[in-house]
Amino acid sequence: MTGAQALVHSLAAEGVEVVFGLPGVHAIPIYDTLYDYQEIRYIGVRHEQAAAYMADGYSRSTGRVGVCLTTTGPGAANTVTAMAEAYSSSVPVLQLCTQIHSSLVDRAKGALHDTKDQLGLFRAVTGWNKRIESVADVPNSIREAFDKMQTERPRPVQLEIPVDLLTFEADVELPQPPSYQRPGGDEALVRQATEWLRTSHAPIIWAGGGVITSQFTDELVELAELLQAPVLTTFMGKGAIPEDHPLSLGNWATAGDTRDILQEFLDNCDLMLALGSRFSALSTGEWALRLPERLIQIDIDPSEIGKNYPTAIGITGDIKKTVQAILAQLREAGTGERIPRAEEVTALRSVVYEILAATQGGRLQVVEAIREALSREAILVNDMTIVAYAASRHFRVYQPRTFLYPSGFGSLGFGFPAALGAKVAWPQRQVVAICGDGGFMMTCQELATAVQYEINLPVIIFNDHGYGALREIQDIEYSGRRIGVDLTEPDFVRFAEAFGATGIRVEQLNELGPALSKALSSPKPTLIEVVGPLIEFLSY
What we know:
By secondary structure, the chain is of the alpha/beta class. The longest helix has 18 residues, at 342-359. It is globular and about 70 Å long. The termini are far apart.
C-alpha cells in the first residue's frame, strides 16, 4: 500500500465512517484514496476550524472518535482553537494533517507551508501527538491514537504524515482492532467507598462528564435510587440522569441567585460521591462551594483526584467499571432502610424555580419555549451566548449526549459547526444550534457546507448586534463605556437565502416555538433570526 492507502484503510479498520476536512496540496494523495473508498463519508468545510468543531460535535453526540483532515501549515494551524476546546472538554478528536517532505521537516529551508515545529504547535492542545515516520508505521500509529483516546481520559490527538510517505509504497499489515479496555479502580478503595456509602444517611452524587463518557447513565439512576441520593450535574454532565427524575437536581445549583440554597442543602449532606468531574470554576462558583468532608472522588485521570477539593477517598479508574463494582457490593450487603428524598428534591426545585422566574424570567421563558418545541431525544448545541448560558442551567435534558456546550475552553464560534457534526451523526434526530450574532459570524461560512451536504437543521441566532454578555459587563461595571462590543451585522434572512437556505425572522416569544417547529421539518437548513422585542425581553 501507499501511505495514503494505509491511512484510509487503518481509519476504516477502527470503524471511522465520517471525515471532516479541507483539501490542500500536500493532502491530495489522501483525497485520491478517499475517492475510491466510499465506505468513509467525506464532509468538506469552508474553514479548517469548522472541520475540527464538526468532529467535536460528532464525537460528543455519539461517544465515538471524531476525525478531521487538514493540510500542512496554515490548514493545520487553523484547527488549534477547536482542538483546544476538545482538549479542555475531554473530547476524543483525531486531527490528521500532512507535513512537508520528510527530508525538509524542521530545517527552515522555505518549503511551501513550512511551519516552525508543527508537531510542537499541537502539543499544547492534545493529549498525545506524533509524526509518522514510515508507511509501515501508519497502522500502528492509528491504533495507538485510538487506544489512547478510548482507554485513557479522552483527549484530542494529532497525527502528522510527511507528504512523501503518502505516495511511497510498503508492505503493510492491518491488524483487527482490539476491544479497548478501560481500567477499574483499586479493590480496597472500592470496598472502603462502598462501606461509606452503605452507612451514609444523607449522601449526594455529583455527576460530571465522565459519567457520560463511560456510559454509566443507566446505572447512575439505579445507584441514586438505591442510596436515595440526589444527583447534581455539571455542564458536561447534563443528561447523566434525566432531569425530570425525582432525584435530579439538575445544573441550576451554582448560579449566583441560588447558590446559597444549594450550600444549605450541601451542608446537610454527610457524604458526596463525585463521578468524572474536575470541579471546574463554572460548576463550583469559582470554588466557592463547600463540599462535604467525606468526599469520594472517582476519575480516570489521576491528576484530577484532590486537585480542586480535598478528597477523603480518591479512586483512579473508569467510572463504569469502578462504580459497577460498588453497586454489586451494595446490592449484596444492602443499604438499610433509606429515607425517601424525592419530596425534598421536588420542594427544593420549586423554591429555586420561583427565584429564577423572578430574576431571569425572560431568559427562562425563551429556554422553555425551545424545550417545548423539541422531542426528548433532540440534541441542543450551544455557542457562548446569553441564551445558551441560561440553557446550560435551565434547559431540561433527558438523555446523555443531547446537550453540547463548550464549557471547557469557552470557544466562541463552536455552536453552529458542532451542531452540523452532530446532525451528520444523527440525520434522523432533531438537532438545533443556539448562537449569538457575534459567535455565528465566526463560522457562518459553514452555511454553505450545510446546504451542499444537505445537513438540514435550524440555527437560532439571537441578534443583539454585539457581544451581549460583554456589553452587559461594560454597561454595569464600567458605566456604559462601550468599546469593541457593538457590531454591524447583515440581514440574516437574506444572508441565509443567498446560500440557498431558509431565513425566518422572529420578534415575539409566541413566534419562536412555531418557527422552530417549522424549521425542524424543512428540507433545507434554516436560520431563525431573533430580533426586536424578544431580544429586549432577554435583558436583565
